[in-house]
Amino acid sequence: MSRFLELTAHAFPDERLIMVLDGAGWHVAKALAVPDHLRLVRQPPYSPELNPVERLWLALRQQYFANRMFATLGAVTDQLKMATEELAANPGTVRSLTLFPWIELCVL
Fold this sequence. Notes:
Elements: H1 2-11, E1 17-21, E2 38-42, H2 52-65, H3 73-88, H4 91-98, H5 101-107
């Protein structure tokens, strides 16, 4: 997890980052190294409805996978790659899907 946080921070060096985490063991390890411009916000246990990534997955399923059949696993992977690249190119869309009011309060 420390390596993932390091890579994420490196990919966005000029951004202030907030990462919402559930209670997985590797998310709460005492030796976790958190970069200075990255803030970890832990959601309450058993609350997937508060997890912003769930809304991203829903949007991906609805916009890129609904009512489609794929001939191969490679085709699914290609579709997912295209979808995530489109999302990455549209930060406003990601923000609108994931910025819950309670997250905004954590930023202030």
